[in-house]
Specification:
The protein is mainly beta. The protein is 14% helix and 43% strand. It has a 5-stranded antiparallel beta sheet, with no helix packed on it. Strand 3 and strand 4 form a beta hairpin.
């Protein structure tokens, strides 16, 4: 899975801020996501649960930020 993949959480409802989040990568036994709830927040889940999340698409936001940081 690529950083920036948009995921849908199977354990929440659409009203929950954790319903959709952006995959940030794996750290040890966990994977981390970013979501928005009155600001940017992060959440950690067991890596073994990753296959339960539905892939919605990919955000181009990380690619844009990387490019902007490389520009002079």
């Amino acid at each position: 899975m690529k950083i920036g993949t948009i995921l849908e959480n199977p354990w929440t409802t659409k009203e929950n801020p954790l319903y959709r989040s952006i995959y940030m990568g794996v750290k040890g036994r966990y994977f981390e996501t970013m979501y928005f709830n009155k600001g940017v927040c992060t959440a950690k889940y067991n890596k073994s649960d990753l296959d339960k999340f539905k892939i919605i698409g990919e955000t181009k936001g990380f690619d844009v930020m990387k490019q902007e940081l490389k520009e002079d």
